[in-house]
Every structure is written in structure tokens, then in C-alpha cells.
């Protein structure tokens, strides 16, 4: 009965997955329809070590024994060899990548939780069946030992909750732990006994789960189980001890569950939906459990403890990395709180625009000399970061790429100069340091999406550092990570984008560009170097007039240009063959978030049936969505609107701030609807705007797992 | 005569140098100039209307050639030609009434017809019908013969000598009437703002958010009128680079106590989603309902269409142009100095004329006007009320006679 139900429950998500996956045929994955093969291949992509040899046959047996034969498992994109290499982190003890890394087997204790986390984060694009398949290798260990019992348990487990996908990470955690035990314990009989007990426990847990249908419970329990397993080395004596502690812990968990049931459910929902929020709530529970166990078990080897921290921190970070609700500046309490913490004392601008109360509207300029004088009295902010912050504030560094690059370089400096204070842990201290830097930078100017993504990357790299690395080693790793990010995500990406986009420029074309985008400049210069004959229409807009800078560069290089302002766009659009634009960010509904005016250009181009190319590096893609330009934007200095440089006679708004009815609005960005965009050129190729979520999903995780 | 000619030359020079800003000013000045032309024109006993028409047309031709883009000048010339025709027709009609219905001779009309071989009888009939009597159900029912016969004094008989005295009085009367009518026209041009802004309260509701670009006096009066009626609403003003007249408008509106926000032109699309109505002024309204307006407004119109925001054009009736636009972005456009965009010599350091074969590598485009196709316009507010773009052709038929649409061709032929 259970066996019969098993395939259905497992297949269902798989069937759903077929449509999900056929869209992108991975070049490397050439798995056939045999699930056993798939799993074996999954496991064996880089299988060499002994740890694998125990698990991969298991998986075969498991799948064969269960006669689990869904006809098609779509090719697994995630499991291309490159990606496996990319995931240089403990992914379950049975996972080959560990052996690739060559890390010590003592880390196995953390593998369970780590695996679940990876499963949720890296594999979230792949739906539940993948997780199910991934959980099989672990569970199959039991099955091999205990025949069908384990299978039943698993089946029950699968069936127990309607939200099978949610529980699966829990299952994998548990199984991973079990497997670990299995591998490390010497005597087979002892192992078997222990496993049956754990299985019994598990079944009890499942029963409880089924009764309550609380998806969250599973993880908690698993956490407990896992902790047990971790704490035990080998032998039955320890096992006895654990059962007692387990009981205690379960009582604690019950209490916790009672108190936090609601919160956990919320967290769960978030986990299943939000791609980055994997398992954060459950981990926090686990953490508590860990603390409990630490208290009880007393002495523990420091290695394991540190491992736990390592395993826990990334989850906390990820929790932070969920696109957190931006600071809403119409919320007075929070603004007050933020002000108290702030380094940069901003003054509220007068005559704020009512519609944009939720965005920071500060006086620009007056605090800069003060901040500059403070440069030599810094206590907690690294000078290079401080410098970059002031450059943001004064507007000397603008543009998504430049800001991101400068920030990373400043962080790099800070990391070089960093030394762990006594009695502190590098990972934790450095993370909090970076956090304080970031909040300083936010005070100077709100982060761009590119910077946000880079910070996310860096924090993840810090969190993923191994505990037993020496400080200098850790620092050098981080530095190389930063360098690699700059190189891969910005410099090389730009080169590839240029190569893609240049193919779209033909002789005799008239290209329209707007503002100053570095990528667009590179494209034009590259095409010019290739000897293509084309003309460029540079459209500019107040108040920044960035187009002039670009115009100067292009004219210097010998391109023939036409310069005009954005109002004349309808006039020049007649002769234009193609519009090439940069972007500050591309959101997952295809909306292009870019310098203000881009939407106007794209709209007019659309009206004149002129194709619009958006050139944007993939690290600027974001899973956020936005419909208008008002909810999230940035306001610049309103004074630059009132005075027009070079035109002294235009001074009608000289004392604008004296009139309380008059506001000047200096928007920085606007959101271009995706239907105005013909094509987005990224380093992953030229895609329509509808493919943005695909890129976010497929490549977005790269940013954290190189 | 010579003093008129100097006046004309002065005005032509002003137009050529683009000294006259705004279509209202040029319309008014044109009308005043033509009034003096009419008043100084010596009229013979016969052919008065023709002589007047020729004189006005000759001056008008110069004026239009001086600034073909300022369509208001041409509009006023055509309006005055139309006025002369109309006055002539009414005087004829009154003369006919005064005589007898059977007296069918009318020199002026007759000569005019000979003078205008292109003029069809049907056109005259239509013009006469439209001026002499409003279309009523009765005329429709009574049928064509009567309505056609009344304004159709076709064949000219011999003129009786007894009419000369009467005709001289008529000649003075014609000139007098034309000048009166021109004065009325000038009055209309001056007061068109009031008449337009009277309609403001009916179109702006409480807490409305209105967007406009640049500065138009009509728009300013329109908004102020609504404000005076205690309507409170907010205005977004796009500054309208490169002239930045939006700043001026903002200053004026703030002085009146309106909630005003100045935005850059590039932020139009970002803000349009929060706007209830777009109100802009126009440079000219073409016969097909298209609008020639200050540069940048087409962008606003497209954005408004995207967000289904009503796009309202306020314009006096002197901006109604009876021409159909062809390639208006180029042919009916004015190009301003590049110095609005780039300072003189700003790029001279990086220009290398030796390599590019003499042709400059850098062009600066600074057009003055945009053309907005009629499909983007929701409503026209003129001094005669609100009209949809598809009705503009009918308004034009009211104001102009079909013979005057092309002013220039006559002397050439």
C-alpha cells in the first residue's frame, strides 16, 4: 500500500518538473530516463572517494529496490560537472564534492544541516522531486540494512505531510546524519541497532507530524536527532546517554514549538517560496538545540563546535539576505532609530515631495566638509570604505559598475588590514564589520542592486570560510574571491556582452544611446574598432548631463555623433535603427531599472517600432519585482534642478525652498516596463525580458556558490 | 501706403528673426498689421472685395514666408481673408434684400467669380449658405432649389446708374465692416484665455494631479482659473529643456498658491502613472487633429497614452490651422541654436576636421517643436468649447474659407 503510494507522491513533483526543465536543455547533462542512472550520475559526477562508494551503490539499490520508475526524470541541470565544482562546500557526507575538496572527515558532523541548506538554496529551482531523489541515497542506507522498513518509513514520511517538499529537507538532514553514523561506526550490529532506534524515533516523529501537520516540526526534530548523532562518536553507551538527552531535548522542543509555532509556519512558508530563505527558522531552532546539547553534554571537541558555527552562520546570513524590507522613511520611529545609529548626520530636506515620503530626502552637501574632517578620527570604519562612502555621497563615483567595483576594492583593502580581535572569531567579527561598513555606505547613498548582490556574495564567502583556516589564509581567500567577483562578474562579463552586442551593429546603422553607460561605450568603441560604419545619437538629460562625457569620448575616438536632449527624442527617433541602453538593475518581472529617462526613450522607441537593446551584466539581476518607479527609487539633490549651469538667465527658482508649495523632484531611476524591451544582452547571451527570472534562478545562485 | 509698407517690413523682419515669441503675440500683431493694411487700402468703386483680398493676400504672403513655422500668422491672414469674403457676402445679401429679390445683378460677386476661375459655384453656395443662414430643418425640407437660388445671383445684367451712390456708401461700409470684424478678431485673440479658462472648473476635480510640460500662457491661465474657484489640486511641471520655461510656470503657479512640483523631463514617464490628467498648450492645431507643440510633448503624450491618462490640449482658436500636415516633424519645425545644449567651443578641442573630410563629426539637434498625432489627444479645449480631435476639421470650416487654404499660390499663377 505504502509502496504503491510512494511512486505517486514522488513522481508528481517530477512530472511537474518536466515542463520546468525542458525549457533549458543543459549541454552537459545527458541523463537518460532511468532514474537510477540519474541518481547515480548525480552522485557520481565527481565520485572518487570512499565516502561516495558507500553511498552511490546504495542509491542504486534504493531506487531499484523501491521500483521507483518514473519514466522520465528530466536532465538535471544543476548537476553539470562545473556546477559541482562550484559548490565547494560540504554537501552531505555522501556527496562527492567533499572528497573533491579533500577536507577532513571530521567535518561530517555538520553535514546534515549543511546539506539541507544547500539543498534548499542551490536546488530551489529544482522542485521537490530532486530533493526527494537526493534524499534517497541517505535513506537507502537504512533500507539496505533494514529491508523495507526504512522504505516504509520514508514513504510515510513522504505521505505524512501534504507539503512533502517542505519536509524533505528535514528528511535529508536526518538521513544524512544517519548515514554518517553508519559510515563511521565500526560494528555493523551496533549500527543496525542504533539505526532501528533512530528509525523508531523518526517514526514517532512522523506520527506526531501527521497528527499535527505542522511542517515545521520535522526540522526541529531532525535537528535534535542530528545533534545526537553528531555528539556521539561510536558505540552503544553513548547511544544510551543520547536517548536520555534526546528525551529532554524533545521536551524543550515541545515547549519551543508551542511558543513559536506561528512564527515557524511563517518561516516555512517563506522558505518554500523565497529562494534564499532556505531553512532559516528551522536552523535557528537547531541552533538553540545545539546550545542545549552543548550545555548538557559539557565537553565537546572544539572542532565540532566551530563547525557548527560555520554551518549556522551562512543561514543567518541568508536570512538577512532575503530582500529585506527597505527602510521606509515615512515610518518615523524607524527613521529616528536609524538616525541615532547614523554616522552621517543627514538633514531632512525642506519641501519634501509628498509622493516620495517613503524615500530618504536629505539636504545634500552641508555634511560633506564635516565628514571629511572626521576622516582622521575614524574608530570603526576603515578609511578606504570611508573614502568610498564620501565619494558616493559627493557623487564622484556613479554608475552601477563603478560603485560596485569601488566598494569591493574598499572592502578588499579593509580585509587586508583586518586582524581578528582577541577572543573573537574571524567569521563572525568580519561579517559584523562588513555589515557596519555596508550600513555606513547606505547612509551615504542607498545601495544599488549591483552593490547589494556583491555584498551578498562577500558575506556568503565570509560565512563559508572554514573555521580551521588561519587568519591570513582566510583573508587571502576572501581577497581572491573579491578579485574574482570583479573580474568575472564585471570585467569579463562586460567583454562578453560587448562581443554579443557588436554582432547587432551593422554598417550604416544609426544607434541611439542615452546617458553614460560604460558597457554601451565599450560596445560602440569596439564596433568602431572593427571598422563598422555607424552613427551614434547621444541623448542626454538634465540634470546630470552624463551624455556629454560619453559624447566627448566618442568624438575623440572619431565616431560621428549627433547630440540632443531627451525632449527631442521624438524627432531623432525617425532615423534611428536601434536603441542601446544600459541598466542599473533588471528585476525578475523583466522591468529594467535604470537611470531616469530610460523608460521614456524605450517608450518612444517602441512607438516608432525601433528595437531596444538593454546591456546589463547578470550580477545586476535581482529577484525583486517592481511595477512603477515610485515605490523604490532614489532622490537626488533638488537644487541641481533649480539652477541650470551655463544659463544664468534661468534662475526663476533661485529661492525655491522659501515657497512651501514648491517642490523640486530629482529622481534618479525609473522602471521601464518589459514590453518596451526587445532584448537584454547579458554575458549569458541575448535573452528576451521574459527570460530574466530564468537567469535569476539559474545563475543567481552562482553569486553565492562559486 | 508707404507707412504701411514699412510696418509690414518691420514685422517681416521681426518674424524672420524670431523676435516674436508665442503664437498669441504673433497672431495679435498680424491682425493689427492687416487691420492697418485694410484701413490704408484705397478702394475703387468696383471690385472692392477683390482689391482688399489681393492687398491682404500680398501682405500675408510676405508674412507667411517670413516665418512659415509660425502657423498663427497664416491662420490670421486666412481668417482676415475669410472675414473680407464674409462681409462682402453679407453686404451683398443685404443689398439684395434692400433691392429686390428679382434684382440679380451683383458686381462684386460677379467680378469675384471671374477673378477666381478656380472657385466653384458649389463652394460659393456652401460658403454663402453657411454664412447667411444656419442649416435648419426647414431649408432641408424646402429643398435645394430655394436655398441654391437665394445666394446664386448668377448672371450679371446691366448695371443701372442709380446704384452708384448706393455703391459708394457700400464701399465705405465694406471697409468699415471688415475693420470692425478684425477688431473683433483681435478682441477674440486677447480674450481667448479667459474663455478657455472658464471651462477649467468643469474639467479639474478636487485633488487632481495634473502634469504639464514647459510653459504655456493658456495652461497657466487655465490652472489659475481652477485655483481661483477654490479647487485644490497638484501640478507636476516638467521643466521643458532646453528653454526651462517650466521653471517660469512653476514660479507663477506657486505665487498663486498652487501645490507645484518641478520634475525633469526625463522623469515624465516615472511620474505619469500618478497623474490624473495632462494639460499642455499647443503651438498649432492641424486640420487632422494633430498638434504641433513645444518639443518633448510627444513623449508626454505617449506616456499618457500608456497609462491611459487624458491628454488635454488647450489652445485659442487662432491656433487652428487649416493645413494638413505632411512630415511635420521636419517641415513644420524650427531648429534652435546648438548653444542651448552645448556651450560654444565646448567640443572644439576634440574635433579633428582634418580626418573627417570637412564634414563635422558632431551634430547637435535642437528642434523647437514636436508633432503629436491626433490619436494621442483626448480633448481640445478652445475658446469655443471642448472638441474631440475628429471635429477639428469642422471648426476649421467655420473659420476659414476653402479658397484661402493656400495663400501663396495665387500670385504665382
TrEMBL record, chain A:
GO terms for cellular component: cytosol. GO terms for molecular function: translation initiation factor activity. Residues 288-299, 306-336 have a biased composition (Basic and acidic residues). InterPro entries: IF-2B-related (IPR000649), IF_2B-like_C (IPR042529), NagB/RpiA_transferase-like (IPR037171). Coiled coil: none annotated. Its main location: cytoplasm. Keywords: Cytoplasm, Initiation factor, Protein biosynthesis. Residues 175-337 are annotated as: Disordered. Transmembrane segments: none annotated. Belongs to the eIF-2B alpha/beta/delta subunits family. Component of the translation initiation factor 2B (eIF2B) complex which is a heterodecamer of two sets of five different subunits: alpha, beta, gamma, delta and epsilon. Subunits alpha, beta and delta comprise a regulatory subcomplex and subunits epsilon and gamma comprise a catalytic subcomplex. Within the complex, the hexameric regulatory complex resides at the center, with the two heterodimeric catalytic subcomplexes bound on opposite sides. This is Translation initiation factor eIF2B subunit delta. It comes from Dendrobium thyrsiflorum (Pinecone-like raceme dendrobium).
TrEMBL record, chain B:
It is found in: Cytoplasm, Cytosol. It comes from the Eukaryota. GO terms for molecular function: translation initiation factor activity. Keywords: Cytoplasm, Initiation factor, Protein biosynthesis. Residues 145-173 are annotated as: Disordered. Its main location: cytoplasm. InterPro entries: eIF2B_beta_subunit, IF-2B-related, IF_2B-like_C, NagB/RpiA_transferase-like. Residues 160-169 have a biased composition (Basic and acidic residues). Residues 147-158 have a biased composition (Low complexity). One of its GO terms (cellular component) is cytosol. Component of the translation initiation factor 2B (eIF2B) complex which is a heterodecamer of two sets of five different subunits: alpha, beta, gamma, delta and epsilon. Subunits alpha, beta and delta comprise a regulatory subcomplex and subunits epsilon and gamma comprise a catalytic subcomplex. Within the complex, the hexameric regulatory complex resides at the center, with the two heterodimeric catalytic subcomplexes bound on opposite sides. Belongs to the eIF-2B alpha/beta/delta subunits family. This is Translation initiation factor eIF2B subunit beta. It comes from Dendrobium thyrsiflorum.
Amino acid at each position: 500500500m505504502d509502496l504503491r503510494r510512494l511512486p505517486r507522491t514522488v513522481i508528481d513533483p517530477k512530472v511537474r518538473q518536466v515542463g520546468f526543465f525542458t525549457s533549458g536543455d543543459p549541454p552537459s547533462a545527458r541523463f537518460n530516463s532511468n532514474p537510477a542512472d540519474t541518481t547515480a550520475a548525480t552522485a557520481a559526477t565527481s565520485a572518487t572517494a570512499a565516502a561516495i562508494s558507500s553511498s552511490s551503490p546504495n542509491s542504486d539499490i534504493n531506487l531499484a529496490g523501491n521500483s521507483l520508475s518514473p519514466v522520465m526524470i528530466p536532465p538535471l541541470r544543476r548537476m553539470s560537472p562545473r556546477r559541482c565544482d562550484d559548490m565547494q562546500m560540504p554537501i552531505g557526507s555522501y556527496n562527492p564534492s567533499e572528497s573533491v575538496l579533500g577536507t577532513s572527515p571530521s567535518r561530517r558532523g555538520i553535514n546534515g544541516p549543511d546539506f539541507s541548506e544547500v539543498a534548499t538554496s542551490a536546488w530551489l529551482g529544482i522542485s521537490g522531486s530532486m530533493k526527494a531523489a537526493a534524499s534517497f541515497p541517505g535513506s537507502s542506507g537504512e533500507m539496505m540494512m533494514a529491508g523495507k522498513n526504512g522504505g516504509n518509513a520514508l514513504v510515510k514520511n513522504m505521505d505524512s505531510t501534504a507539503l512533502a517538499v517542505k519536509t524533505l529537507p528535514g528528511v535529508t538532514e536526518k538521513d544524512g546524519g544517519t548515514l554518517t553514523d553508519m559510515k563511521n561506526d565500526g560494528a555493523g550490529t551496533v549500527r543496525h541497532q542504533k539505526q532501528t532506534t533512530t528509525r523508531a524515533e523518526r517514526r514517532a516523529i512522523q506520527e506526531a507530524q501527521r497528527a499535527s501537520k505542522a511542517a515545521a516540526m520535522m526540522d526541529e526534530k531532525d535537528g535534535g536527532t542530528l545533534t545526537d548523532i553528531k555528539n556521539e562518536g561510536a558505540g552503544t553507551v553513548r547511544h544510551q546517554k543520547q536517548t536520555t538527552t534526546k528525551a529532554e531535548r524533545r521536551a524543550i522542543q515541545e515547549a519551543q514549538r508551542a511558543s513559536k509555532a506561528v512564527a515557524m509556519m511563517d518561516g516555512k512558508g517563506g522558505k518554500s517560496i523565497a529562494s534564499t530563505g532556505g531553512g532559516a527558522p528551522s536552523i535557528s531552532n537547531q541552533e538553540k538545540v545545539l546550545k542545549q546539547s552543548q550545555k548538557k553534554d559539557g565537553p565537546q571537541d572544539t572542532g565540532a563546535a566551530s563547525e557548527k558555527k560555520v554551518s549556522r552562520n551562512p543561514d543567518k546570513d541568508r536570512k538577512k539576505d532575503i530582500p529585506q524590507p527597505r527602510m521606509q522613511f515615512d515610518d518615523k520611529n524607524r527613521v529616528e532609530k536609524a538616525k541615532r545609529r547614523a554616522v552621517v548626520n543627514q538633514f531632512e530636506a525642506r519641501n519634501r515631495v509628498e509622493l516620495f515620503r517613503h524615500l530618504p530626502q536629505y539636504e545634500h552637501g552641508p555634511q560633506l566638509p564635516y565628514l571629511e574632517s572626521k576622516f582622521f578620527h575614524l574608530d570603526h570604519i576603515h578609511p578606504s570604505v570611508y573614502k568610498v562612502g564620501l565619494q558616493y555621497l559627493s557623487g564622484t563615483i556613479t554608475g552601477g559598475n563603478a560603485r560596485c567595483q569601488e566598494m569591493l576594492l574598499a572592502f578588499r583593502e579593509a580585509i587586508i588590514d583586518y586582524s581578528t580581535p582577541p577572543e573573537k572569531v574571524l567569521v563572525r567579527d568580519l561579517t559584523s564589520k562588513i555589515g557596519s561598513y555596508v550600513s555606513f555606505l547606505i547612509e551615504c547613498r542607498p545601495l544599488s542592486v549591483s552593490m547589494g548582490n556583491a555584498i551578498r556574495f562577500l558575506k556568503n564567502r565570509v560565512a563559508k570560510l572554514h573555521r580551521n583556516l588561519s587568519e591570513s589564509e582566510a583573508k587571502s581567500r576572501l581577497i581572491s574571491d573579491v578579485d574574482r567577483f570583479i573580474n568575472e562578474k564585471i570585467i569579463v562579463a562586460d567583454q562578453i556582452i560587448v562581443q554579443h552586442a557588436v554582432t547587432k551593429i551593422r554598417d550604416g546603422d544609426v544607434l541611439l544611446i542615452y546617458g553614460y553607460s560604460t558597457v554601451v561605450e565599450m560596445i560602440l568603441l569596439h564596433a568602431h574598432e572593427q571598422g563598422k560604419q555607424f552613427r551614434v545619437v547621444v541623448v542626454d538629460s538634465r540634470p546630470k548631463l552624463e551624455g556629454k562625457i560619453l559624447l566627448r569620448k566618442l568624438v575623440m575616438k572619431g565616431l560621428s555623433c549627433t547630440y540632443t536632449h531627451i525632449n527631442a527624442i521624438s524627432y531623432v527617433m525617425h532615423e534611428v535603427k536601434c536603441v542601446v541602453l544600459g541598466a542599473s538593475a533588471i528585476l525578475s518581472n523583466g522591468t529594467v531599472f535604470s537611470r531616469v529617462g530610460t523608460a521614456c526613450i524605450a517608450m518612444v522607441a517602441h512607438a516608432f517600432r525601433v528595437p531596444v537593446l538593454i546591456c546589463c551584466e547578470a550580477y545586476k539581476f535581482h529577484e525583486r519585482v517592481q511595477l512603477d518607479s515610485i515605490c523604490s527609487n532614489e532622490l537626488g539633490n533638488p537644487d541641481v534642478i533649480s539652477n541650470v549651469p551655463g544659463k544664468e538667465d534661468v534662475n526663476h527658482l533661485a529661492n525655491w525652498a522659501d515657497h512651501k508649495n514648491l517642490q523640486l523632484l530629482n529622481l534618479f531611476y525609473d522602471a521601464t516596463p518589459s514590453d518596451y524591451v526587445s532584448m537584454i544582452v547579458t554575458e549569458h547571451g541575448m535573452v528576451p525580458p521574459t527570460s530574466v527570472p530564468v537567469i535569476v534562478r539559474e545563475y543567481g545562485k552562482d553569486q553565492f556558490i562559486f | 501706403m508707404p507707412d504701411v509698407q514699412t510696418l509690414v517690413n518691420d514685422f517681416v523682419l521681426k518674424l524672420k528673426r524670431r523676435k516674436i515669441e508665442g503664437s498669441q503675440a504673433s497672431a495679435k500683431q498680424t491682425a493689427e498689421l492687416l487691420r492697418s493694411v485694410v484701413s490704408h487700402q484705397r478702394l475703387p468703386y468696383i471690385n472692392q472685395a477683390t482689391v482688399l483680398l489681393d492687398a491682404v493676400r500680398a501682405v500675408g504672403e510676405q508674412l507667411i514666408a517670413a516665418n512659415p513655422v509660425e502657423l498663427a500668422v497664416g491662420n490670421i491672414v486666412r481668417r482676415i481673408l475669410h472675414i473680407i469674403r464674409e462681409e462682402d457676402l453679407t453686404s451683398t445679401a443685404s443689398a439684395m434684400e434692400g433691392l429686390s429679390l428679382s434684382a440679380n445683378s451683383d458686381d462684386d460677386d460677379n467680378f469675384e467669380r471671374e477673378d477666381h476661375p478656380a472657385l466653384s459655384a458649389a463652394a460659393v453656395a456652401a460658403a454663402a449658405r453657411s454664412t447667411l443662414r444656419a442649416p435648419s430643418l426647414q431649408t432641408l425640407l424646402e429643398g435645394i432649389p430655394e436655398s441654391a437660388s437665394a445666394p446664386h445671383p448668377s448672371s450679371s445684367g446691366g448695371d443701372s446708374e442709380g446704384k452708384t451712390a448706393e455703391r459708394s456708401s457700400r464701399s465705405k461700409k465694406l471697409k468699415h465692416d471688415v475693420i470692425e470684424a478684425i477688431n473683433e478678431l483681435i478682441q477674440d485673440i486677447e480674450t481667448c484665455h479667459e474663455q478657455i479658462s472658464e471651462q477649467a472648473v468643469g474639467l479639474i476635480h478636487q485633488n487632481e494631479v495634473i502634469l504639464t510640460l514647459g510653459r504655456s500662457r493658456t495652461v497657466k491661465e487655465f490652472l489659475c482659473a481652477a485655483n481661483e474657484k477654490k479647487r485644490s489640486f497638484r501640478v507636476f511641471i516638467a521643466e521643458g529643456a532646453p528653454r526651462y520655461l517650466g521653471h517660469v510656470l512653476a514660479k507663477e503657479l506657486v505665487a498663486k498658491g498652487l501645490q507645484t512640483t518641478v520634475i525633469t523631463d526625463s522623469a515624465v514617464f516615472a511620474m505619469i502613472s500618478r497623474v490624473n490628467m495632462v494639460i499642455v498648450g499647443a503651438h498649432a492645431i492641424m486640420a487632422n487633429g494633430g498638434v504641433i507643440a513645444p518639443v518633448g510633448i510627444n513623449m508626454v503624450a505617449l506616456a499618457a497614452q500608456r497609462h491611459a491618462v487624458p491628454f488635454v490640449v488647450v489652445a485659442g482658436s487662432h491656433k487652428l490651422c487649416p493645413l494638413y500636415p505632411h512630415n511635420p516633424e521636419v517641415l513644420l519645425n524650427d531648429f534652435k541654436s546648438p548653444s542651448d545644449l552645448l556651450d560654444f567651443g565646448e567640443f572644439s578641442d576634440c574635433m579633428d576636421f582634418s580626418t573627417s573630410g570637412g564634414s563635422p563629426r558632431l551634430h547637435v539637434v535642437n528642434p523647437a517643436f514636436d508633432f503629436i498625432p491626433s490619436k494621442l489627444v483626448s480633448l481640445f479645449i478652445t475658446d469655443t468649447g471642448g472638441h474631440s480631435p475628429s471635429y477639428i476639421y469642422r471648426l476649421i470650416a467655420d473659420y476659414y474659407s476653402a479658397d484661402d487654404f493656400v495663400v501663396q499660390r495665387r500670385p504665382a499663377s
